[in-house]
Amino acid sequence: MLDQMKETARALGANGKGILAADESIGTIGKRFSHHGVENNDMNRRKFRQMLLMAPDIEKYISGVILFEESLYQQCDDGTPFVKLLQQRGIEVGIKVDTGVVEIPGTCGETSTTGLDGLAQRCASYQKLGARFAKWRSVLRIDERNGCPSALAIQDNAWCLARFAAVCQSKGLTPLIEPDILIDGSHSIERCSKVTEKVLAAVFKALIDNHVCIEAIVLLPNMVRPGSESIQPFAPLDVAEYTVRTLMRVVPPAVSTICFLSGGQSEDEATNHLHAIVKKAPRDRPWALTFSFGRALQSSALKAWGGEDHKLKAAAEVFTERAKLNSEAAKGVR
């Protein structure tokens, strides 16, 4: 079982392929639908995700798909389960297992991720359904005026990620570790680098303390860049330099795959920054570098579809093209 989890971790970063994060909750996908006049109902959610999963040639660019629990049980128009469709295309099946965030008492609105209760039973069920990996997202924010992220928030979220990972591995699922430091704020790139380093160091200590096999995880970190409200000028090369330096300092060589989050960046920003990071990283780096994008893979396709059935084919082609661009960026070619 451990060998299979290690192989899944390697497969998710193989050959410049990356992960499609199609795990938006019903509420989150509803917000995205509303921007394009699409009604948020079961049928439209199924149609949109079916379009993504059936898009032409995506197995060349996508190594894995993170599903929301709803999609784990959904089927294509011809009755083929989404899980079976992905397996037939050689794409690893993943599942989001956290259940959202709650505020940590005594902090300035900082949060802890929930979902540990009953996780072992859910993971066992998902594994039987065909899932091979699972994702848990922790959310931290930089707010220097209010001392965020606090030591308490960092420790709490690191420990939750580690407990999640330990449970997943006990049930045969490769854990995707996602300590997401939000892009919101006016912080500098230097501040983002320091916070990212501190958070990742705490996460790996917690993983080791919880006896998690580091070779059988995948890391999903934020890219290091200034906050979205910062007036600090920066270029893709700056993002690459700070991100690579941070990873080299704290990520163990035992980690096989690192998949970057788009973190609220536009499609072009995320792709350009991924390309710069891969080009900047040493050729002899111990880990594969690629992507785990949600909106940065789906936005143009959602816009092209707009809820109209006759536009599904065109939207699928738009999605394939965006996946190809990110695959090329992960290979360091354009």
What CATH calls the topology is TIM Barrel
Label the CATH architecture: Alpha-Beta Barrel
Q: What is the fourth-level CATH superfamily?
A: Aldolase class I
Report the order of strands and helices. Answer: HEHHEHHEEEHEHEHEHEHEHH
Distance between the termini: 38 Å
Structural class: alpha/beta
Shape: globular
Q: What average pLDDT do the residues reach? A: 97
- Which CATH class is shown? Alpha Beta
- The number of helical elements comes to 12
Strand share of the residues?
15-25%
Organism: Guillardia theta (strain CCMP2712)
Family: Belongs to the class I fructose-bisphosphate aldolase family.
GO molecular function: fructose-bisphosphate aldolase activity
Pfam families: Glycolytic
Verbal overview:
The protein has 334 residues and is an alpha/beta fold. It has a single domain (2-102, 112-137, 157-330), classed as Aldolase class I (TIM Barrel, Alpha-Beta Barrel). The protein contains 12 helices and 10 strands. The protein has helices at 2-11, 26-34, 42-53, 69-72, 82-88, 119-129, 151-170, 189-209, 236-250, 267-280, 295-305, 312-330, and strands at residues 18-22, 62-67, 92-96, 101-103, 111-113, 133-140, 174-181, 218-219, 257-261, 288-293. The strands form 2 sheets. An 8-stranded parallel beta sheet has the order 8-7-6-3-2-1-10-9. The protein has a two-stranded antiparallel sheet with strand order 4-5. Helix 8 runs parallel beside helix 9 (236-250). The longest helix has 21 residues, at 189-209. The radius of gyration is 19 Å and the shape is globular. It is an enzyme of class 4 (lyase).
